[in-house]
Amino acid sequence: MPRPTLMLTNLLLALLLIAVPVAGAHAAPSPGAEMLVRVALPDAPEAVRTLAQAPLAVLAVETLPQAYVLARADLAGLDWLKARGYAVRVLDADAAGAAYLMVDLTGALADWQRPGVELYNDGVRAVRRLETGQQFTLDKGMWRLDQPLRWIERQPLRLPESITPLPMVQQIIDQLTQSRLLAYANELSGETPTVIMGQPFTIVTRYSPGNPPPQSSMMASTYMAERLARLGLNVTTHTWNASRPPNVIAEKPGLDPNAGIVIISAHLDNTSGDPATLAPGADDNGSGSVALLLAAEILSHYNFDATLRFALFTGEEQGMYGSKAYAAMVQNQDIRGVLNMDMIAWDAVSGPDMDVHSRASVPNNTTLANLFIDVVSAYQLPLTPVRYDNGITASDHSSFWNYNIPAILAIENYTADPGIPRDFHAYYHTINDRVQHYNNAYYRAMSQASLATFAHMAGLRTTCYWADLNCSGLVDSLDIARPASAWLAQSGQWNFSPLYDVDGNGRVDVVDIQRFAAEWGSNGS
């Protein structure tokens, strides 16, 4: 072969080799291309604040085994990172239009098979890229990477340095009984029929999807809205998708407009192997939903500095859709903290171990997690809480992390600890997730811990005169109306409070009303 021809042939071969991507990797990024990158963090809180305002989309913040973020970035974002000395690793050079999952490798579901192609694995978390149109079912062990972080500066909760037991908080948690928990749990999980909109109804599923969704799922939202409304709370439904059951939100205004808003939440929806037809979801998450309802019943009679919100979210099982939409809607409000309850009634080995999932990169989040642990100790509740500062993201608390709102998850023993056997629900996401499998004492303790923590988060007013029920400074007609209303509606426990039962005989009667009336106009001085 003549030399010029040989040289031309070699040049063409070289060009072809350059054009072929390396086996097992995505093509090199082109100008304007979007990549998925891992960025090492030298100082987690400050670096996260900086990166949240950088020309990239932060999708996850992790602190183990070393602090890092996952982000979508184009070449301009990559140059921005490198110019400021960040160590960057490209996980996917062709991220445009791609969908990703984060997988937890430390919890109870670490051994489950996962969809997609693995891009990253550090022994604590793994990242997987989904194939186009790939179908899958979410669970506590994996979550979507689809919500960019928005950094918003926030006022902290007003909390003392240490928790001293308050007699009024003890009175509050003593009202939370097993019988009340189980009565509602049996109704919400379909074990016993209930009454909704004045008619008998059995809630056989609370599954959110469907076109239309199951009638039972829509009725579950109505069930909660009715019971919260009768407490005198401001109740709204938040429709995040017109073809899905709505979130249910109830609010009790606080007495101090500068104390902000605190939220206690639970996801109302559930799933199973046959979710459109039968999904009891007694533990996941009937347990958290019922604990929230009882928290509202009990706390509605008391006064707080902060505004209390009771939030029941739907669409959690498909990717926290309800809470994501709600958090986005309220992101600019003065929300100081969120306590999320999800799966709080299973304890098969009687540890009684439980997890408090937190996020150290969110300012004041560790303080909130420590409050829960301190409350357990202060009120001598039979629980062994463990705090996880790199907590899982697969529940509704994480929707608030995306907006820099402190939030914690209270959940049964999901994460394995040295020397402590893993104790996760044996009937998770099955039709056998039923009330009969509750550990009733454990469930009550978890509910009490959450209730007491929320009371401290909200700033319980303990200094008002006993007869001044609305803490207005004077005993007036509004104060007398509350026990009078309870007296006229003795058919349910929801309207009873020891605050109205002055003589302590277990019921609100004429004697109690007379004692309130005798204090008319008094401010307790």
Strand content: 15-25%
CA radius of gyration: 26 Å
Number-wise, the strands total 18
- The N- and C-terminal alpha carbons lie at a distance of 113 Å
Which structural class best describes the helix and strand composition? alpha+beta
Structure annotation, total helices:
13
Structural shape? globular
Spans with pLDDT under 50 lasting ≥5 residues? 1-27
* Largest beta-sheet details: 8 strands, mixed
Mean pLDDT: 92
Q: Strands of the largest sheet, in order across it?
A: 11-12-14-13-15-18-16-17
The share of residues in helices is: 25-40%
How does this structure look, described?
The protein is α+β, with helices and mostly antiparallel strands and 525 residues long. The chain has helices spanning 3-19, 44-52, 75-83, 167-174, 178-188, 215-229, 282-299, 321-330, 365-378, 397-401, 440-458, 477-488, 510-518; strands at residues 35-40, 57-62, 68-73, 88-92, 100-104, 117-121, 125-129, 142-144, 194-196, 199-201, 234-238, 247-252, 261-267, 307-313, 335-341, 353-357, 384-388, 407-412. The strands form 4 sheets. An 8-stranded mixed β-sheet has the order 11-12-14-13-15-18-16-17, with helices on both faces. It has a 4-stranded antiparallel β-sheet with strand order 2-3-1-4, covered by helices on one side. The radius of gyration is 26 Å and the shape is globular. 47% of the residues are buried. The model is unreliable at 1-27 (pLDDT under 50).
